[in-house]
Amino acid sequence: KLFFTDYGNAAKVERCDMDGMNRTWIVDSKIEQPTALALDLINKYVYWLDIYLESVEVVDYQGRRRQTITKGRQIRHLCGLAVFENYLYTINSDNLSILRMNRYNGTDVEALARLDNAKEIRVYQKRTQAAVRSHACEVDPYGMPGGCSHICLLSSSYKARTCRCRTGFILGSDGRSCK
After folding, report:
1. DSSP letter (8 states) at residue 123
2. Within this chain, do residues 21 and 96 fall inside the same structural domain, yes or no?
3. What is the spatial distance between Cα 96 and Cα 90, in angstroms, rounded to a whole number?
4. pLDDT in tens, 91-140
5. What range does the domain containing 50 cover?
6. Which H or E run contains 100?
7. Tens of pLDDT, residues 5-43
8. Residues with Cβ < 8 Å from 69, sequence gap 6 or more?
9. Are residues 155 and 95 in the same domain?
10. Domain holding 167: CATH number?
11. Residue 175 backbone dihedrals phi, psi, to 5 degrees
12. Same-domain pairing of 67 and 142
């Protein structure tokens, strides 16, 4: 799945399949300006910052079990969001410090370091990487991902895929080759 935020005409948190199909709103009420998003891949939770409502909130992948983690004026200065173990990590754009807070109740806020011009944050650690299983976009014996001549995108499950073409090409009638 691909998760993303939008605060155009109607603010929301959405998800879709990697090929763009099955687009679903998972949060579309009591939300104004969601600017950062982080996923808990193990427990299947979506965290987001709303700088207008000055809150950090969480829902499960279906948009249920919504909970406010923290609320207050300090949120409007946050950008970027990452989750790892029991903490959320973000950047305070006022003083460019990396902040760590308890992901369950927003307590234990601690400034860890300062970075110049930081706007985004990611945690890279072996435990944050999901185990890879066999999937529909694996390279075939001819070196083509999922049998697609250009781009293979996972679809509704790891067993299904959609082939797409690079700019300037169109997908052939076989659904795999680009012309």
Report:
1. -
2. yes
3. 10
4. 988 888 999 999 999 899 888 998 888 888 888 887 666 677 789 999 98
5. 2-125
6. strand 97-102
7. 999 889 999 999 999 999 999 999 999 999 999 999 889
8. 47, 55, 56, 57, 58, 88, 101, 103, 104, 105, 106
9. no
10. 2.10.25.10
11. 75, 10
12. no
